[in-house]
Amino acid sequence: MSGLIISVSGLRGIVGETLTPDVAVRFVAAFASKMPSGPILVGRDGRSSGAMLSQAILSALRASGRECVDCDVIATPTLGVLVRDRNAAGAVQISASHNPPPYNGIKLFGPEGRVLDAGRGAAIRDAYFSGEAAWCSFDRIGMVHPCDDVHQAHLDKVLATVDVTAIRTAKHRVLLDSNHGAGGILGKRLLEALACDIVMVGETPDGHFSHVPEPTAENLQNIATRVKDENCSVGFCQDPDADRLALIDADGRYIGEEFTVALCVQHALRKWTRAKASETDPKSDAAIVINGATSGMSERLAADAGVQSHRSAVGEANVADKMIATKAIYGGEGNGGPIDPNVGYVRDSFVGMAQVLDLMTKTGRSLAMLADALPQLFIYKTKAEVSSDRLPKLFESLIAAHPDASADTGDGLRLAWNDKWLLVRGSNTEPIVRLIAEAETMQEAKRLCESAAKFL
């Protein structure tokens, strides 16, 4: 899709075509008009268009009477931590995540240091469409302030979740591929703090991506080869704004993003189990939260530990909402986005790196051994062209065809059995429906999608 996409979580478009300085100014002016009093932070990933958009956005905020803090290049989860650390009213992150270089986008944060929930996001989206702004008089124009060290607060919080001494003793050799996005700055500091022997790839945050920015197996073939050739115990691969993390084992095998969350959940469950055994303030009603499209590996791990699992609608804000509501000890999305509430309610690749290393260290197992010991499940994904007005009838037919499944229509249609599930979900931006299934064999997952597609 090349058009400007505006949702409750922000916007995304092609710079100079659908995303112009004028669009950025009007969108951020609407944001400023709805936020509580206080300074607003502005950050960006490494894309070449980010500095230009940052200047436009800072001008819009100043013209709205806001004091601004220019964080320059900063990872998305780091910006979330900084909002709380600086008692800011909110933040604007300039990033198009894993989209190609012509794209950029805007992601909005509230004072809690997390992406805006659906209600507040919708209010700002509507304010943008109606042209709302709160421009100030000449004597109330805000100032822009620099930020001395944008990373330290986040680094401290991540390190507090792991056994730093044990990891430092292990002397892991690690490859970090930041692909010229925002993750290399803090990523290097984190791995240095953990005394890792680091092979850095794409450290400079200039947006000159060395490979397609989404960290999938196809896009990371050369990186996977290098992990093996460099004799690294693990390869960490970030997306441009560093809220997603893919894993590669010592043999150059792409472990993937779904496993990132599952391994981090396993790490959290181990800590919770130890705390419960020692009765040092355990949560007897502990829970984890994943979204409806995330692998059930985490659910099975939680069940084995006697911990509840909850499914939210797809989207980081929805996962965070349910985590807060259920007081979950952990959460995340299967696109490589672990969410540790002890750090912040934002997907976080740095949390993933530290906690995977901690898990490897504490168990004495390689990444390959840890991944192979997880519940073996297989996900199949496909899509088809379907207009949104046909979806209700499609959902009714699928529910009737599968009376043995539990049905949830909170976010599309999710049919669940004890050993498999199927998600049928319409796109918010295209006339298509996405079908995702998971089962104990790839054949069964594919069969679920194909049988559902017959109703289209």
From TrEMBL:
- Tell me the protein's name: Phosphoglucosamine mutase
Show the NCBIfam families listed in the entry: Arch_GlmM
* GO MF assignments: magnesium ion binding; phosphoglucosamine mutase activity; phosphomannomutase activity
Gene name?
glmM
- Is Phosphoprotein found in the keyword set? yes
Top enzyme class, one word, equals: isomerase
Q: Which residues form the Alpha-D-phosphohexomutase C-terminal domain?
A: 399-453
Query: Which source organism?
Result: Novipirellula aureliae
Q: Give the family per the record.
A: Belongs to the phosphohexose mutase family.
Q: Which residues form the Alpha-D-phosphohexomutase alpha/beta/alpha domain?
A: 8-132, 153-252, 280-376
Q: Which cofactor does it need?
A: Mg(2+)
Entry keyword annotation includes Hydrolase: no
